[in-house]
Amino acid sequence: MRRSAPLALALVLLAGVARAQPRDVAKADALFRDGRALMKKGDYETACPKLEESYRLDPAAGTGINLGDCFEKQGKVASALLAYQAARALLQPGDPRIGPVEKEIASLDKRAPRLTIKLATGAPEGTTVKRDGREVEASKLGVPVAVNPGKVKVTVSAPGRDTAVFRVSLVEGKRRELEVGPGERDVTPAGSSAAGADDERRASRSPELAAPSVEVPPGSAQRTWGYLLVGVGVVGLGLGSYFLVQFESGKSDLERLCPGGKCAPENERAFDSRKDTVDANGIAAPVGLVAGGIAGGIGIFLLASGGAERDAALRVSPGVARRTWAVNVGGMW
């Protein structure tokens, strides 16, 4: 068994804690407020990108709902549909916004045009299809996809072929099918085969480097891993305790913002942003405590099984009081 396995296990468990950090909420809030103010002025061309960036920085249901409303005001019913669907996925059971959001989704689903792009039979391998400059995934070919009304440009390219361009106009509530394929003419640049051969020759001459191996005496290595894992365990327990305190504090803040889950419109954005952080802390707390306990336990086991070379024993455990969380470390030296 490799000696690094216990440490690898502990670090994998603690990685979840490191990822559960707050997003760029402050910038997202500023963009949200700017977007809302611009919407009230009717400047949807400027408002929608700000709301879209706010949602990218910190996905929140309130932002998604406002973004859907903004897109709809622009006539981009397919984009509005996607925004409302994303917001609906973020709403928790019992949220009073679920009903109105689902009503919007049903209405937009009927209005959004559907475009089915089919790849022509015999299209060569490596064919790429783009709609308005964005690549269409292979899984979306031959499938009706909601697209905003108006003119749509589809380009098709393939190795050794000309790029073919197709245009189609879409209207609300209608479906269109478009069969596409690349052009016919071979446009492979002269000399490309020779260049490829040169690359292969250079690659064949590249030396292979073997990873060095190091043998470590088992006795001292086991004790080293033991002390290291105990330290990792203490860090994990400390992080878990911190996130638990933040989780409890955040729940109280949410209740003050929206008593009983009922939010005033001006508090929706703040509620969604803080709720995401509270949920993240709620996940990070048990992960940190469990990972810390496991890492510390493995470390203590390695120290305890160190035989005659053992000169220390540690005990690491979380301490709990009514309003206090702590990490207890004790032992004999």
Structure explained in plain terms:
- The structure is a single chain.
- With 333 residues, this protein is an alpha+beta fold.
- It has three domains: 5-21 and 219-332, no CATH class; 25-111, Serine Threonine Protein Phosphatase 5, Tetratricopeptide repeat, CATH 1.25.40.10; 114-183, Immunoglobulins (Immunoglobulin-like, Sandwich).
- Helices cover 53% and strands 15% of the residues.
- It has helices spanning 5-19, 25-40, 44-57, 61-74, 77-90, 98-111, 192-205, 218-257, 268-304; strands spanning 114-119, 128-131, 134-135, 145-146, 150-157, 164-170, 175-180, 313-320, 325-332.
- Strands 3-2-5-6 form a four-stranded antiparallel beta sheet, with no helix packed on it. Strands 4-1-7 form a three-stranded mixed beta sheet, with no helix packed on it.
- The chain is flat and about 75 Å long.
- The two termini are 29 Å apart.
- Mean pLDDT is 76; it is low at 1-21, 193-217, 307-317 and 319-333.
Ordered list of secondary-structure elements with their pairings:
Elements: H1 5-19, H2 25-40, H3 44-57, H4 61-74, H5 77-90, H6 98-111, E1 114-119, E2 128-131, E3 134-135, E4 145-146, E5 150-157, E6 164-170, E7 175-180, H7 192-205, H8 218-257, H9 268-304, E8 313-320, E9 325-332
Parallel strand pairs: 1-7
Antiparallel strand pairs: 1-4, 2-3, 2-5, 5-6, 8-9
Protein traits:
alpha+beta; 333 residues; Immunoglobulin-like; single chain; 9 helices; flat; Serine Threonine Protein Phosphatase 5, Tetratricopeptide repeat
